[in-house]
Specification:
The structure holds two protein chains of two kinds. Chain A is of the alpha/beta class. Helices cover 25% and strands 29% of the residues of chain A. Chain A folds into two domains: 185 residues, 3-Layer(aba) Sandwich (Rossmann fold); 101 residues, TPP-binding domain (Rossmann fold). A seven-stranded parallel beta sheet of chain A has the order 7-11-6-1-4-5-12, with helices on both faces. A five-stranded parallel beta sheet of chain A has the order 15-14-16-17-18, with helices on one face. In chain A, α5 links the parallel β14 and β15. In chain A, α3 packs across α4 and α5 runs parallel beside α7. Chain B is of the alpha/beta class. Chain B has a single domain, classed as Rossmann fold (3-Layer(aba) Sandwich). Chain B has six helices and 13 strands. A five-stranded mixed beta sheet of chain B has the order 6-10-7-8-9, with helices on both faces. Chain B has a four-stranded parallel beta sheet with strand order 1-4-5-11, with helices on both faces. In chain B, β4, α2 and β5 form a beta-alpha-beta unit. In chain B, α2 crosses α5. Chain B starts with a strand and ends with a helix. The chains are: A alpha/beta, B alpha/beta. Chains A and B meet through α3, α4, β7, β9 and β10 of A and α3, α4, β7, β8 and β9 of B. Chain B: This is Electron transfer flavoprotein subunit beta. Chain B: One of its GO terms (biological process) is fatty acid beta-oxidation using acyl-CoA dehydrogenase. Chain B: It is found in: Mitochondrion matrix. Chain B: GO terms for molecular function: electron transfer activity.
Chain lengths: 318, 248
């Protein structure tokens, strides 16, 4: 067994979702040698590589693809890179987190390798047996991979939490090897897409991946102006704030310790995105709203009265 | 060209079959996948703005896909192609079928929904783009075509916000929920659609070998969350969160 992780990095560090992919790789089987593929350009890539080499004891090798072709996460170049690295390394498994990065690149790479990939894996029951939600989480499908090529997965990071926080072992650092990119330019799709910009959301509050508490507002808010109420509450709780449509089948999958939904009715598509949260609180005027069926604590009432009261009565964050 | 898929209607409550072989599909309302509707709507708007001469809807799957294609024709597609195959088609096979259709039809743009709401795979668009060696703009919430320079500017909904890419045409674009609001087919258009052509092909006609590298072992119901408590006041809620759930 050998696994290639298609990793994402930011500001000189490997993202937590990519480390969850390492945790998932550990579930594939014992004696799985895990290589982490990092691509990008410039000093932040070198920094991320150093971080990757010592941040997780199960990583046995870091592969580094340094080129301005990887300055931005363009699927055309990255898929070709995975193809190239796979041809040299013949890995049994290729895993990426199932965020927008992994979902954009991994299927394209799979097509280049003539492989059927498996999306959104939540449980690994063997080297080729996987569980994934279908129908927005209303059913769970267990699939066996019977193909001859590598088994390619995107995994839900919320299902493969990091085991503890082992101290970085600098003494035990994994080797960092450069990927030979001399054959990369042959693919004619590279260069057909150009990165223009990324307009990111507010970065003051914790990002979703790390947020211990997530607060969402639903249709009952009625206007973007009223979303400020949700943001105020999030600020007080040190939480991430979202609109309901950003969570679920069409948005993000979250599983924080505390999920608070205000004025969210709880359509199946939404519940699919938050059902794995540890504690769910729902506030809704409609006592029959489906969200109450999944909430641990429900409060029937007007969010425009309840949020101000919460703001007043919640303890100050230390 | 727009690829569309026939799925269980989004409003139907999904029931897992007792023998765990799949979900119940007999006597269940089937519809066009909502993301495919958005892709088709975008194609129609592109045509209406004069930037495309024709919209071709394509679908692969069992005989009943014709109904879904007929809906697409009623929304405004000019013609349709149905690649009939009775068995399970995984995204890799669909991508190969679409590649054969693109090679034959030579469209300037291929639009797909970002995922189907049945298997939630979110793969086909990326895979067909890879096979065609075309650039891809996935999870699009805005598409602007520039015919003069033969490029498309695409806003993509990514984890951190909104990413903007510029793609050389021809390209593959997969559509997210907020790209547009699909139209309803009007009665006259439904009548008109009846006379539009749906070409029938098989994977063999297209020289596509259908391979299945995946085997569904079982389909089960997800573990249920037990319904919780309905509280009566904010004070009670804060107390519960502090002392029972210990999350504050």
């Amino acid at each position: 067994l050998s696994t290639l992780i298609l990793a994402e990095h930011e500001r000189g560090a490997v993202k937590a979702s990519s480390l969850s992919a390492v945790e998932a790789a550990k579930c594939v089987g014992e004696d799985n040698s895990i290589s982490l593929l990092l691509a990008g350009s410039g000093p932040s890539l070198q920094e991320a590589a150093a971080h990757a080499a010592s941040c997780h004891p199960s990583i046995s090798q870091v592969l580094l693809a340094d080129s301005n072709k990887f300055a931005y996460p363009l699927a055309e170049a990255w898929a070709k890179l995975v193809h190239l690295v796979q041809q040299k390394g013949s890995y049994s498994h290729i895993i990426a987190g199932s965020g927008s990065f992994g979902k954009n690149i991994l299927p394209r790479a799979a097509a280049l390798l003539d492989v059927s990939p498996i999306t959104d894996v939540t449980e690994i029951s063997g080297s080729n047996l996987f569980v994934r939600p279908i129908y927005a989480g209303n059913a769970l499908s267990t699939v066996r991979y019977t193909g001859s090529g590598p088994c390619m997965l995107t995994i839900r990071s919320t299902s493969f939490p990091l085991e503890g926080t082992a101290a970085p072992s600098v003494s035990n650092a994994a080797p960092i090897d450069k990927v030979d990119l001399s054959t990369l330019s042959e693919d004619d799709a590279i260069g057909k897409s150009k990165y223009i910009s990324l307009s990111s959301q507010d970065t003051d509050r914790p990002d979703l991946g790390n947020a211990r508490i997530v607060v969402t507002g639903g249709r009952a808010l009625k206007s973007a102006e009223n979303f400020k109420l949700i943001e105020k509450l999030a600020e007080k709780l040190g939480a991430a704030a979202l609109m309901f449509y950003q969570v679920g089948q069409t948005g993000k999958i979250v599983a924080p310790e505390l999920y608070m939904a205000f004025g969210v009715s709880g359509a199946i598509q939404h519940i699919a995105g938050m059902r794995d949260s540890k504690v769910i609180v729902a506030v809704n005027k409609d006592a029959d709203a489906p969200i109450f069926q999944v909430a641990d604590y429900g409060l029937v009432g007007d969010l425009f009265e309840i949020i101000p009261e919460l703001l007043e009565k919640l303890p100050e964050k230390k | 060209m727009v690829a569309i898929k026939r799925v269980i209607d989004y409003a139907v409550k999904i029931r897992v079959k007792p023998d765990k072989s799949g979900v119940e599909t007999s006597n269940v309302k089937m519809s066009m996948n909502p993301f495919c509707e958005i892709a088709l709507e975008e194609a129609l708007r592109i045509k209406e703005s004069g930037r495309a001469s024709e919209v071709v809807a394509v679908s692969a799957g069992p005989a009943q896909c014709v109904d879904t294609l007929r809906t697409g024709l009623a929304m405004g597609a000019d013609r349709a192609i149905h690649v009939e195959f009775p068995g399970t088609l995984y995204p890799l096979s669909i991508a190969k079928i679409l590649k054969a259709l693109v090679d034959a039809e030579k469209p300037g743009l291929l639009l797909l929904g970002k995922q189907a709401i049945d298997d939630d795979c979110n793969q086909t668009g990326q895979m067909i783009a890879g096979l065609l060696k075309w650039p891809q703009g996935t999870f699009a919430s805005k598409v602007v075509l520039d015919e003069e320079n033969k490029v498309a500017t695409v806003d993509r909904e990514v984890d951190g916000g909104l990413e903007t890419l510029c793609l050389d045409l021809p390209a593959v674009i997969t559509t997210d929920l907020r790209l547009n609001q699909p139209r309803y087919a009007t009665l006259p258009n439904i009548m008109k659609a009846k006379s539009k052509v749906i070409k029938k092909l098989t994977p063999q006609d297209l020289n596509v070998e259908i391979r299945s590298d995946l085997e569904v072992v079982q389909v089960t119901e997800p573990p249920k969350r037990k319904a919780g408590l309905i509280l009566s006041s904010v004070d009670e809620l804060i107390d519960k969160l502090k002392n029972e759930a210990r999350v504050l």
